[in-house]
Amino acid sequence: MNCTPTRTPLMATLVLLFSLFAGFAHAEPVTININTADIETLASLDGIGQSKAEAIVAYRDANGPFQSSDELANVKGIGERTVEKNAERMTVE
């Protein structure tokens, strides 16, 4: 076989990168229970940062658990668009 030493590591790197990207493409998004999630987990939602996550926890503490993820729009600073963007990632249990 006529493989030069520089081509083998390159091919191995390309195969590894392809494998990693293929794995990410099939990864399922993590579902977050907005009634039990901590601030850090809530902040991982699209459009929700640290302060909005803190507002969610404060709202939840003051008003009890959410009956549906749509109620998240009742939290100051969180609009319906943010709820829609995260609908598939949120649950209430």
TrEMBL record:
GO annotation terms (biological process): DNA repair; protein secretion by the type II secretion system
Pfam families: HHH_3 (PF12836)
Keywords assigned by UniProt, alphabetized: Signal
Residue intervals passing through the bilayer: none
One cellular component term from this protein's GO annotations in UniProt: type II protein secretion system complex
Record's keyword annotation contains Signal: yes
Domain named Helix-hairpin-helix DNA-binding motif class: residues: 40-59, 70-89
InterPro entries in the cross-refs: Competence_ComEA_HhH, Endo/Exo/Phosphatase_dom_1, Hlx-hairpin-Hlx_DNA-bd_motif, RuvA_2-like
Molecular function terms, GO-annotated: DNA binding
Signal peptide: 1-27
Stated name of the protein: Competence protein ComEA
Source organism of this protein record: Marinobacter vulgaris
